[in-house]
Amino acid sequence: MSHVFPRHTKATLPTATGGDGCYLIDSDGKRYLDCGDAAVSCLGHSDQAVIAAVQEQVAKIAFAHSGFMTSEPAEQLADLLIQHAPGDLDRVYFVSGGSEATESAIKLARQYYLEIGQPERRHVIARKQSYHGNTLGALSAGGNEWRRAQFAPLLVEMSHIAPCYEYTGRADDESSFDYGQRVANELETEILRVGPEAVMAFMSEPVVGATLGAVTAVEGYYKRIREICDQYGVLLILDEVMCGMGRTGHLFACDHDGIAPDILCIAKGLGAGYQPIGAMLCTDKIYSAIETGSGFFQHGHTYLGHPVATAAALAVVQELIGRDLPARAQTMGEKLQSALEAAFGQHAHVGDIRGRGLFRGIEIVEDRDSKKPFDPALGIAGKLKKAAFEEGLICYPMAGTRDGRHGDHVLLAPPFIIEETQIDELVVKLASAMVKVLPAP
Ligand code: PMP
């Protein structure tokens, strides 16, 4: 009997024993094309430069507490990230994952307003159908009803506006641009409802990952969001935990939208799975408010800036930049989009194929014309995940909501080193899984 506490206690999971490029290998020797272990493995599973960096660092010094010392890889990684970061982002706070990054961002926003003498600012606005992590602050920001439900009594009060989700949200007689402005303006309405003096931050994902399936914002949406935040002195926190680090074809996803946040959260692709690491980047304006104020960010975790984790991430970012991998994510992502459209573009139960770079989503519907989702009781996403896994494909299907606000979807986030033949393999395996699970039209 295994003593590991798995997420699904009734499931018996294979044991991963090896990795080879885009493939994971289990103890029976079965190979799985890894196209979305939650968008972590951007370099595949056997990147020699990252493996060497981890080995070298662990042999030098594995741990030094950040309350006493910094480390060479942490310093170099912060420099490299800031060199490429958008806007005025100027300081990097290293954590161990995505939830720690978003949680830190919320607390940093609060402390910033205390430091500058606006203690009444405490309210966060985020979006419906979103996910920002599983710790209580991050979960409070998230707008996924299913994830929130059983912890609702423990959550902090925040409010949620509509996401920019053109597939279901845009009216027939509305242009994409007008739709984007309309939903962005919901932020202003909500700020005015709460009272601008009480709002400290707005948090969202530039490209929505897990909850909606690679949903990009329409042109102009984020420019308007930035404008509204500036007008009311609200900090813009962008969560690029999943979509950042080159996945969308830019090192930072918001580069595409032509805006920069006040606080940016990254994780997943930052360590590419070689070490658990995340980071929160903030502007000098925020950092200096703390530096010249109390001089102490009242937050922290034991493993902040862990030397081995930052060494791994430094090698990852050097690989991403040195090998121009975000550009490769863009090119291969376009090939993936074409392959998906060729295979499923006319499929009776595929409503939308979307995304950017190697971050793609397929929305599964019962009816293409009405965009009606399948009844959630059918468990389409769970069945697709299982069927694809049996075929030797790891992808990320997610269930729709019970109120039908969005349907099941499949998120695909393969490593940036994926080859065209492996894109074909992905499509063939996904097609077999879909044949097994989806009802005949
Ligand atoms: N934000 C986003 C956008 C995510 O996709 C996730 C993880 N799926 C998180 C935050 C939380 O990250 P972690 O699981 O590393 O805590």
From TrEMBL:
Keywords: Aminotransferase, Pyridoxal phosphate, Pyruvate, Transferase. One of its GO terms (molecular function) is pyridoxal phosphate binding. It is an enzyme of class 2 (transferase). Its EC number is 2.6.1.77. One of its GO terms (cellular component) is cytosol. InterPro entries: Aminotrans_3, Aminotrans_3_PPA_site, PyrdxlP-dep_Trfase, PyrdxlP-dep_Trfase_major, PyrdxlP-dep_Trfase_small. Its cofactor is pyridoxal 5'-phosphate. PANTHER family: AMINOTRANSFERASE, AMINOTRANSFERASE CLASS-III. Belongs to the class-III pyridoxal-phosphate-dependent aminotransferase family. This is Taurine--pyruvate aminotransferase. It comes from Shimia thalassica.
